[in-house]
Amino acid sequence: MPVVRPEVLGLPGAVAATPEIDLETLDNPNEAFLELMRRGHDLGARNHLLQRFLDGEPIAALGDGPIRESFDRIGELWHDGPEGILIEHRATEICVSLVIELTKMVRQDDGGPRAIGGAISGDDYKLPPLLTTAVLQEHGFRAVNLGPNTPVEVFELACFTDDPAQRPDFVWMSINDLHQDGTDLNARIVDFAARCVDEDLTLVIGGRATGGLDLDRVPSIPGHGAMTEFATFVEGWKTRRG
Ligand code: B12
Fold it and tell me: How many CA atoms lie within 13 A of 52 on its CB side?
């Protein structure tokens, strides 16, 4: 029997099966995803993303492509009033659950390197840490996400624990809002980065506000503005590590 609505069974279906939106007129698939997100069409957005994932697009490419591009556009709508804010908040929640779902679809490698990270203090953005974690898992890491708004002391605790079994092999920070909360956040991050260099722990930073950090003291710390670039970096890192 034909499956009429695969999404109710938890299966991805063709985007064309989203009858109320004529996505066929949109030749760029990222535009189709934007349209689904703009309308809050969670099942359609899920079908679209899962289908592209199953067709072979890596999570990093989905993050830099449909996800980032749609938020670049949705992020402008608040200028037009509260409806724009509604669309933005709804789209964020839809996308958070989609990225979590993608993370569950990648193979878990029990022997993979351990990675930990999150977004810094004052940075409330959920999607960049979730996407970073998903990309790391897709590349065979055992990745732990500390989520948004993580104080530097928590990174220190997680990374420099005395228990060798708990120490990560790789740490990352997502910096999308370099919020100054009275403490000198920049200096704290740089101190943490210097300690990572001393203890031979790889630290990678990424995100929209990375350029606002003064990293002159730790020039060897890699910074990435996109997930595809980061995915290439982690593959090289794994090869160098052997
Ligand atoms: C959703 C959203 C919010 C939500 C966040 C909800 C949540 N809990 O996640 C809420 C409502 C909280 C919010 C609040 C604010 N926001 Co806001 N927000 C956005 C929006 C629409 C999407 C952000 C997002 O998740 N994008 C999707 C992710 C996947 O893309 P990305 O962030 O670009 O990340 C990519 C890269 O940077 C990189 N990357 C990111 N992190 C990392 C980490 C590593 C390790 C690596 C390797 C790579 C990497 O890879 C990603 C994929 O390519 C953006 C618009 C936009 N253009 O992004 C505005 C936007 C960022 N916000 C903006 C503003 C102004 C604000 C507020 C100040 C508004 C206010 N007046 O209160 C506050 C500040 C909050 C704070 N303290 O941080 C502005 C920032 C302008 C600027 N010059 O910086 C933007 C650009 C909107 C706009 N066009 O005006 N926002």
Answer: 23
